[in-house]
Amino acid sequence: MAKITYIEFNGTEHVIDVANGLTVMEGARDNAIPGIDADCGGACACSTCHAYIHPDWVDRLPAIEEMEADMLDFAYQTDPKRSRLTCQIKVTDALDGLIVQMPEKQI
Ligand code: FES
């Protein structure tokens, strides 16, 4: 279980306990948090689960894989240092305290 803070583009924060094994995207989707659309359902095929990772967490996440990097090219206003697709980040205890910020829009 990890407590994850999702911050909408307008600054609204949602602090959610997300079970291990889910993805960061599923934690948002299952709690109806606005700003993560996840149109493809987590198949790394849409880029609408894009979020910016808090700088303190960027290096603490599993490395980005090629498929995610390729799909991120289609996301809206990516930040090369902080952008990730949240469907590709599996939740573990190690992510307790993670903070992600949603972009202004998805695609
Ligand atoms: S939900 Fe489609 S790429 Fe993440």
TrEMBL record:
GO-annotated biological processes: P450-containing electron transport chain
CDD domains: fer2
Keyword entries, A-Z: 2Fe-2S, Iron, Iron-sulfur, Metal-binding
A Pfam family of this chain: Fer2
Keyword Transport: no
Gene Ontology MF terms in the entry: 2 iron, 2 sulfur cluster binding; electron transfer activity; metal ion binding
All copies of domain 2Fe-2S ferredoxin-type, residue ranges: 2-106
Domain of life the protein comes from: Bacteria
Family to which the UniProt record says this protein belongs: Belongs to the adrenodoxin/putidaredoxin family.
Protein name: 2Fe-2S ferredoxin
